[in-house]
Amino acid sequence: MLKLFAALFMLLDHIGFYYSDVLPGTLVMALRLSGRLAFPLFAWSVARGFRRTHSLMVYFLRMTAFALIAQAIIQQGNQWIGLHMQWTNVLVTFALAIVALAGYRLARDSSRDLIASLRPIPAAPNTVPVRPIPPRFDLKISPGGITLDARTGLILGSIALLAALLAAEALHADYGAYGILTVVLLDAATHRVDEAHWEQRLFQYLLPLNILFLMTRMLTASAPVYWAVMQLASLAAVPLMVAFQRDRKPSRWLKYGFYLFYPLHILALCALRMALLGPLP
C-alpha cells in the first residue's frame, strides 16, 4: 500500500513537471508539492528492503540493473519532447544508497563485538555448589554480524559511505547526496528503537537534514531556493511511513512492477505530450 501512495505522488509530480506550461500555476505547485512525498516513501522502502533482503549483493545488482533500464527509457522519452537530460534517475540514487547503508552499518556494527563469559552451573536447583568454582570460558560474539576489528570496520565503512555520496554528486543522481543521506537516516532513526517512538525519531533525523539541504541551496545557488523550500513538504511523508510500517513484503512481480512503473509512466507522459502539445518550450 505504501508504494502505491508513493507511485501516485510520483505520477502527480511528473504531471506537474511535464505539463507545467499548460496547467494553471497553482495546480502545478500543488502537483509538485504532493510529489515531494514520493521520494521519502520510496527511500523508506529501500531502507526496509535492506533489512529484509536475504542477499545484499542481489539487492544491489537488481537495483543497478533497473537503474540502467530506467535511464535508457527516460532518456528516450525526454528526447521526444526536446528535453536534454542532465541527471541520472532516482534508481541510481537508491543503488548507491544500498552501498552507503552497507558502509554505515559496517562502521556502526564492527564496534559491537564483545567478549561473553560463560561458566557452568549446577545441573539442578538447590544442589551443593561445585568446588572448586569451575573455570570461566570466554567467547567472542558479534551482535551486529560483523567480525572485523572495530577500527578496520569504521575505516572501510566510512570509505564506502563517502564513496556513495561522492558518486551520487558526480553522476548527478536525482536528489544527490541528500537522497543518499535520507535513506541512511531512515535506517538510523529506527535502529534499536521501539516502534512507538519511530515517528518522533524520524522527524528528529529528517528535519535537520532538510534544513541543511535548504541552507546548502541558499549558499551555493546550485538549484532554485524555492525547490529546497518545497522539499520541506517531504516531512509530511513521515506519518505515512509509520502508519504502513507493517506492510507485507510485496510479491516478486509486484515489486518488479514498481521498478518498471517509474520509467514507463514517464515515457507515457512524454508520448502523450508529443501527441497533444508537442515539445517543451
Oligomer: single chain
Fraction of residues in helix: 55-70%
Biggest sheet, spatial arrangement of strands: 1-2
Beta percentage is: under 5%
Structural class: mainly alpha
- In whole angstroms, the N-to-C terminal distance is 37 Å
Rg over CA atoms: 23 Å
Q: Total number of helical segments? A: 11
Average pLDDT number: 84
The helix/strand order is HHHHHEEHHHHHH
Q: How would you sum up the global shape?
A: globular
How many domains, in number, for the residues?
A: 1
Low-confidence sequence ranges: none
**Sheet having the most strands:** 2 strands, antiparallel
Number of strands: 2
Structure report:
The chain has helices at residues 2-18, 25-35, 38-52, 56-80, 90-109, 150-170, 176-189, 198-220, 225-231, 238-243, 252-276; strands at 114-118, 137-141. The protein has 281 residues and is mainly alpha-helical. The chain has one domain. Strands 1-2 form a two-stranded antiparallel sheet. It starts with a helix and ends in a 5-residue tail after the last helix.
List the SSEs and their pairings:
Layout: H1 2-18, H2 25-35, H3 38-52, H4 56-80, H5 90-109, E1 114-118, E2 137-141, H6 150-170, H7 176-189, H8 198-220, H9 225-231, H10 238-243, H11 252-276
Antiparallel strand pairs: 1-2
Helix pairs in contact: 1-2, 1-3, 1-11, 3-5, 3-7, 4-5, 4-11, 5-6, 5-7, 6-7, 7-8, 8-9
